[in-house]
């Protein structure tokens, strides 16, 4: 059974509250990072064999959202012209600045396409390290390795190797959650604010980190004085600043408080409490016309995420992690935009992988996890090629 490092180590099926600092063995960290690199390299090599190295690189650094990020990195928001669309002009203000700012910095040394991929690949590795750290702290080193590799073999893991913002956001989110588990609230808040400058789903992370920090602050401290920890309150204040700050800035640039949300109207992106999701499922089950494989994969991913969230709750994951997963799933289910993108939106919800990671970690020997993860890597690579080179819409 996977070793639990901290907290209620003897309580079956429970995720403990982290109290002491673990020392991760270097072999475990190395296995997590090399395992993640290996499965992602398999996906990139398959793309290169399918479309050629130049064609694969062109798609990874220039498809759909990647094109917008590159334009923002090169020209800024004001210098990126809008593109006419059926529901209004598509504007660069829909995309958060964290990732293109790093691409712009890397482009001082590299061509912009190579810079975009270098930032994304480095962020993907940092995210895998953060996922390992969270899982290892709660369930043991072996579960941490499995979680880091699992994140690299998800159906839409090809996005982890593309010039998209999900890898960077996941890195900030994982390390923010890790800091919260260690009760390093200022660090958790700062990392959460950085995540909020990277993707709009920073709101989900901010909710989780701020709520956990406020719970900590409301709890009286030890001793007769019972003083509350001001660092927890500081973390709660810092957590939403990135996301809220960018939304406010776009509102100021557009001359109206809801300017960011009006920009999103061009993509038909709004929160409709799941109505569009239910309609998409009904269409999949009742419509006579053919459907894309991506629709089926997105539907299966959403259903699996609901089940994994229930398992996470039964295992009593720490509140910050469980609330983050729940908020990410709520946003994915409630969004009215492209149905097939919901699986990509869930990529940063790494907490949902922990029930699977602990199940793999409990198997005896290394053969079973290696075979299962290897098979998943091949399937993920093949589906990633389909998404990037065959499917006509955005991933």
Automatic annotation (TrEMBL):
It is a multi-pass membrane protein. It comes from the Bacteria. The chain crosses the membrane at residues 28-51, 105-136, 143-165, 185-211, 232-252, 291-314, 321-339, 345-363, 370-391. The keyword Transmembrane applies. Keywords: Endoplasmic reticulum, Glycosyltransferase, GPI-anchor biosynthesis, Membrane, Transferase, Transmembrane, Transmembrane helix. Residues 1-22 are annotated as: Disordered. Signal peptide: none annotated. InterPro entries: PIG-V/Gpi18. It is found in: Endoplasmic reticulum membrane. One of its GO terms (cellular component) is membrane. Pathway: Glycolipid biosynthesis; glycosylphosphatidylinositol-anchor biosynthesis. The keyword Protein biosynthesis does not apply. This is Dolichyl-phosphate-mannose-protein mannosyltransferase.
């Amino acid at each position: 059974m996977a070793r639990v490092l901290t907290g209620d180590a003897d309580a079956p099926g429970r995720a403990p509250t982290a109290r002491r600092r673990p020392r991760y063995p270097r072999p475990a960290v190395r296995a997590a990072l090399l395992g993640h690199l290996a499965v992602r390299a398999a996906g990139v090599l398959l793309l290169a064999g399918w479309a050629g190295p130049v064609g694969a690189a062109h798609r990874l650094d220039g498809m759909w959202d990647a094109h917008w990020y590159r334009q923002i990195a090169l020209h800024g928001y004001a210098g990126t012209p809008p593109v006419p669309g059926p529901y209004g002009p598509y504007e660069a203000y829909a995309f958060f600045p964290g990732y293109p700012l790093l691409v712009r910095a890397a482009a001082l040394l590299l061509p912009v396409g190579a810079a975009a991929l270098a930032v994304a690949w480095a962020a993907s590795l940092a995210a895998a390290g953060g996922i390992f750290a969270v899982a290892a702290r709660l369930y043991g080193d072996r579960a941490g390795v499995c979680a880091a590799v699992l994140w690299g073999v998800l159906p839409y893991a090809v996005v982890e190797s593309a010039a998209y913002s999900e890898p960077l956001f996941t890195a900030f989110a994982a390390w923010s959650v890790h800091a919260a588990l260690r009760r390093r609230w200022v660090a958790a808040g700062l990392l959460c604010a950085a995540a909020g400058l990277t993707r709009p789903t920073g709101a989900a992370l901010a909710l989780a980190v701020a709520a956990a920090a406020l719970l900590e602050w409301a709890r009286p401290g030890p001793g007769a004085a019972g003083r509350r920890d001001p660092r927890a309150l500081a973390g709660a204040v810092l957590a939403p600043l990135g996301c809220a700050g960018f939304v406010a800035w776009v509102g100021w640039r557009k001359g109206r408080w809801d300017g960011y949300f009006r920009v999103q109207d061009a993509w038909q992106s709004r929160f409709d409490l799941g109505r569009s999701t239910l309609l998409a499922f009904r269409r999949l089950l009742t419509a006579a016309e053919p459907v894309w494989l991506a629709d089926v994969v997105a539907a299966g991913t959403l259903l699996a995420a609901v089940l994994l969230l229930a398992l996470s709750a039964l295992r009593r994951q720490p509140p910050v992690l469980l609330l983050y997963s729940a908020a990410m799933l709520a946003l994915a289910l409630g969004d009215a935009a492209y149905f097939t993108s919901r699986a990509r939106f869930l990529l940063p919800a790494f907490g949902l992988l922990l029930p699977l990671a602990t199940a793999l970690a409990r198997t005896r020997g290394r053969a079973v996890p290696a075979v299962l993860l290897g098979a998943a890597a091949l399937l993920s690579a093949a589906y990633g090629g389909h998404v990037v080179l065959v499917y006509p819409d955005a991933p």
